[in-house]
Structure formats: C-alpha cells, structure tokens
Specification:
Blueprint: H1 2-23, E1 36-37, E2 49-51, E3 55-60, E4 63-68, H2 70-76, E5 79-83, E6 90-91, E7 96-102, E8 106-111, E9 116-121, E10 139-143, E11 153-154, H3 156-177, H4 182-188, E12 194-195, H5 204-214
Length: 217
C-alpha cells in the first residue's frame, strides 16, 4: 500500500510539473532533446588546447583559432556563435570575443583567454553542432606571447581529463538547479547521461550561475 502511494505521489508531481510547463509554453530539460551526452562522448583532438571558459584553441602557422568546446556545445544545444571582434582588433585577456545565442534568444558572452590581434573572423552559418573542432571556429588571432604562458589555458595533454571533470561538476550543478523536478533527478542517478541542451532550459538566474561557475577564467 505504501509503495502504491509513493508511486501515485510521484506521478502527481510529474503531471503537475508537466501542466505548469505546458501553460508556460516551456519544455522540461529532461525531455528537451533526444540526444544525450556523458564523459565518454566529450572528446577533444590531441593537438587542441582548451581554455577554462570552454573555448578551444588550435595553433596554426597563420595564428591561433578559437571556438567553443564540445562540453559547451552539448550543454547549450542548438547554439549560434557570433564573433564580437573584427580583423585588426586588438584584444586582451578578459575582453569579450564572441557571443552565443540559443533557446529563443538567450545569450552568453565569452571572453578571450589570451592577448593578441584578430586576423580573421568566421561567420558560421546555422547552429554549431557537428565538426566543432574543425569548421566551426569563431576567430583567428595572433597571440602576443605563447599561449602556454596564460594560466587560463589548459595544455592538450590535460584537456581531455579536464573536460571529464567539468562534466562531473555540471551534473552536480544541475542537481541543485533542478531540485524542484524529481523526474530530472532520475535521469541523473547512477552516473546517468545528461540531455543535450539542458543548460538552455535554465532560468536566467541559474544561467548566470552557470556562466559564473563554468565560463570564468
């Protein structure tokens, strides 16, 4: 009898939550996407650096290319990337360098992890999802000094391990952000996957917390 009451109570929570979100024309984060990701799906090519605000950096003869890493792309879902600088602009570490738009107009601004001069910008058409370490770069710059001299940048040999640590932190973050939604908690148990785009469903307050926790350098 007790078991039946527990099941019925849980079902009522689900129904109430669904009706509230439906009245607000929102989609619950636990069902916001058919795709999921976990530690094993977060990859970064061997020769790529990663900044602590989840920008990747790739060194080339002409300069250093920057884009968003897979953790950020999958956390936000269908995201568009816009360069905030033009060729010839000088940037310092901490200057806004690109803007991300997602989920009906939500915005995040990413800052440069290095000092340098912008050489080129890439106007990516459509959403950033596939080939994020190839065609989907936002800016290319020439750094003032070696990127290894900046504390905000993580070396290639440590980047993959760091991304997996960030995934674990993100799961903990979500457990607090969505603690009013018991059904999300079920998807997070036992090392479960995270739905792609779940960060795009955060409230503005929680999105600012996400920005503060994961996009600072």
């Amino acid at each position: 009898m007790v078991t039946i009451l527990v099941i019925l109570t849980f079902a009522l929570f689900l129904l109430a939550d669904f009706l509230i979100l439906r009245s607000q024309k929102k989609v619950h984060p636990a069902i916001a996407s058919e795709e999921v990701f976990d530690k094993s799906t977060l990859i970064i090519p061997a020769n790529f650096w990663v900044a602590k605000n989840h920008l990747w950096l790739k060194e080339a003869k002409e300069g250093v290319y920057l884009g968003i890493d897979e953790f950020l792309a999958k956390s936000l879902g269908r995201v568009r990337m816009h360069a905030l600088k033009n060729a010839g602009d000088i940037v310092k570490k901490g200057d806004p360098i690109m803007k991300l738009t997602f989920n009906k107009g939500k915005i995040l601004v990413l800052k440069s992890p290095v000092d340098g001069t912008i050489q080129n910008v890439n106007n990516v058409e459509g959403h950033v999802h596939d080939d994020i370490y190839d065609k989907n770069w936002a800016v290319m710059l020439v750094p003032d000094t070696a990127i290894s001299s900046f504390s905000s940048v993580i070396r290639p040999e440590k980047a993959a391990k760091w991304l997996k640590t960030e995934f674990s932190r993100f799961k903990d973050f979500l457990s607090f952000s969505f603690n009013g939604h018991p059904e999300l908690g079920l998807t997070m148990m036992d090392g479960g996957n995270i739905m792609e785009g779940v960060a795009g469903q955060l409230s503005e307050e929680d999105l600012r917390s996400f920005e503060n926790d994961f996009l600072r350098m």
